[in-house]
Structure formats: structure tokens, C-alpha cells
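Action item from last week, closing it out:
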Amino acid sequence: MATKVGMVSLGCPKNRVDSEVMLGLLEQAGYELTAAADEAEVLIVNTCGFIDKAKQESIDTILEMNQYRETGQLKALVVAGCLSQRYQNHLWDQLPEVDAMVGTGEFHRIVEAVDGALHGSRPGFWGEMPVGGIERPRRLTTPQYTAYLKIAEGCDHTCAFCAIPQMRGGYRSRPLADIVAEARQLVAGGVKELVLIAQDSTIWGHDLYGHPELPRLLYELAEIPGLQWMRLMYSYPTQISPALVEAMRQIPQVAPYLDMPLQHAHPDLLQKMGRPFRREKTERVIQMIRDAIPGVTLRTTFIVGFPGETDAHFQTLLEFIEAMRFDHVGVFTYSPEEGTRAEPLGDPVPAAVKERRRREAMLLQRRLVGSVRGRHIGQIMPTIIEETGSTVSVGRGPTDAPGIDGVTYVKGTFPVGSVIPVRILGVKEYDLVGEPAT
């Protein structure tokens, strides 16, 4: 009988893709996959190490999974992902419960790690994974109609608050042929929406061709029969070029949606954060996008409480949010990270102040979002049905990314995974309400 393996995947969609590849490799090697932790003989925790809360969640999850040695069938506990890459020696010393570890650069060796863990050798694999030429079978953990497509590994940016380069290495674009081949395989398996992800999706290809080539990739992906949507996430403002915007405008499969984490709006804070752009340039980029793609949906994120942020700095951020009228805004409180350029600055902004600023920014966005989203009333949007009930279905249109944005409530019952035209009738806070357009 095949050994049963379970997986707990924490953190971002990039981690989720790694988890899906690991599951695919294990299944290919003859292991049986299970979603029931109490049935698993091997449990893998793919950890996140981005901020303190994520690190604590990862540790808590490792300890929680280890309890299945007593209450379930667990024989081996494997830790993968960012935490194991960044704190490998510390974890070995502090967590004797862990039987094997795999870093972010070696997750393709998960079968070796599991085999070794089951035989008591306590293996550990760390390094910088090649982005091309390795097998990437995937067992999707998303609904069949949508999938994340990772187009690059690592990051070359030097943002003062971020430890991602320490955990993921330098930026390495996946070869065009590898990406397209994986996309074809996903679409052949029923995927209708591909969400393109990387630490910075906009510079894809710069290390392969000497300059960014994301538009070229989009045109290639658009040739895949059956692909209905592509969605761009993690776009870096300084790399959003007229050529990219023109490709988004011309290619029907590219959703009129752009995720562009900005982090702040005050020049003093942007400089301290190591963000190489200023508000004036950001506003010009946003206007260029909106002029070329009327009705485009823009998502962004901000950090409050970065060392040195004053009430005046924060007010500038609020003014920027109100002026720009983004469709989707996420706001996070700053936490210092070991080994980053911001670590010597300490954490001088009190936690209560950071949380108050976060709430105030989100309340502002909540007041704005009704009128911002209201511009879609009367429009007809293609909508993927994700849940269905007796009288109302829940779907998602081009304006909303999976898992982080709003949904569309549609009158009627429709098959999950189907794409139907929906006329938008109203707005319910962050969500849209509509009816089938016949």
C-alpha cells in the first residue's frame, strides 16, 4: 500500500505553486496524497517567513502537525519553504520534531527528502533552484478553472523592509518555452484563468534578453486555445512600460486588471523604504494605464508604521489613496525583519499607532470603494461561477483576483466553473451584484 502524504501550504500564491509542484512530484513517485492530516504518514508544512506573524504561524503549524504522531498515523514531518531556507540551522536545533527540511531553492528534491525522513536520515536540501529544465508536474490545489503561473523566481530589488531576496535568491526568469508548455498543460486540464505571479512580474525576461519582455510572453500565452483570462500580479511601478500597457490593451485574454504594490506615497518614506520611484511618476503611470485601458481595475498595497513615519507622512498617504481611487487596497503594519536594510532603524512607531493607521486607511478605502466599484453598474462582464446555490450563484469577473478581492453575486443557478455574461446591477461594499445577460 502506498504511503500517504499530506501538505499544509502557508503564505503567498508563489508558495502555493511550489506546494503544487511538490505534490505532483510525490504523486509521480508513487506516494498517495491525502487532505486528511490524521491519515497522513508524512506531513509537509510549506512555510512562510515574510513577517513575524507568518513566521509564528509557520512554527505553530509545525508543532500542531507533529501532534498527529500521537493522534494520527504520522511517521515523518517535513518542513519546506521560506522559513526553512532562512532559518535552517536554528530550526534543526530548536525543532527536533522535524525529520527533513527543503529550502525554497530545492523543493524539487521533495521526494528525496520524504524518502530520507521515512528512513531516519534527517536530510536537508538548500540551494538556488534552476528555473528551467526541471520537471514541474503539478497537483492543483485551486479550483480546476483557475491556476497560478509562476514566471520567475527570486528578486533583485533592495527594498529596505523586505527579506525575500534572502529566502528566494536573485531574480531568475523562467524560460519562455517552459512557461508556455506549463500553461498549455494547465489549460488542457480545464484551467480557464491563469494568474501570472513573480516577485516582480514586469521585469520578466530582463536576465534572458537584456531587457524586460513581458509583452512578448503575454502574446505567446494568448495563442493557447481555450485560455480565457490572464491576470497580472506583482507589477513593479517603474517597469510598467507603454509597450506592456499596449499589450494589455490589445490582447483580449488579458484581464483589464493590474496589481501594483506601491507601499507608500510620501517621498521621505519611499526613499527610506528603498523604493525607486516617487508619487509624481506613479501618478503619471496610473494615468497612462487608465487612458489606454478605460475601466481598468487597479490593486495596490501600502505599509504603515515604517520607522520614521509621522502623522504628516500618514496624512499624505491618505490623501493619495483618496485621490487615486484604487479598486482594491491592502494595508499592512510594518514589522522589522532580520538582515534587512531597515533592521538598524528599529521599530519606533508604537504598535497601537500602526494599527490605528491601518484601520484608518482601510476605513477610507471602504468609504471610497462603493463609488469606485459603482462605475461597473450597467456593464456586462464575463464571470466565472465559483459557488452555486438554489437562487444565487457566486462568481468572479475580470475586476477581482482569486482569494484577495471581491466576488459577484449572480441571480440564478449555474454550473461551477462555467463562464457566463453578467450584467452588473449594483455594488455591495467590495462585491458586485448582477444578473445573467441574455
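Closing note: The longest strand covers residues 419-428.
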